Write the structure tokens for this entry.
Amino acid sequence: MGSFSIWHWLIVLVIVVLVFGTKKLRNIGQDLGGAVKGFKEGMKDSEKSDDVQQKIGGETIDVQAREKTDRLHS
């Protein structure tokens, strides 16, 4: 019951193809591939912007935005 043989996986694959169809599976694969490609490009862009930031100032300052309140009327 622990592991499945190759025949189990082939039967599951056939059932998935019959349920979804090859065109829909191909579209899902293309969408997933595009998402992975976009993620990788985003990571490369992030690394480039980190390099520029280190060259310009050195340190990143994290701040928390707060709503401005009028202390005279409090």
Observations:
- The chain is about 70% helix and 0% strand.
- The two ends are 69 Å apart (CA to CA).
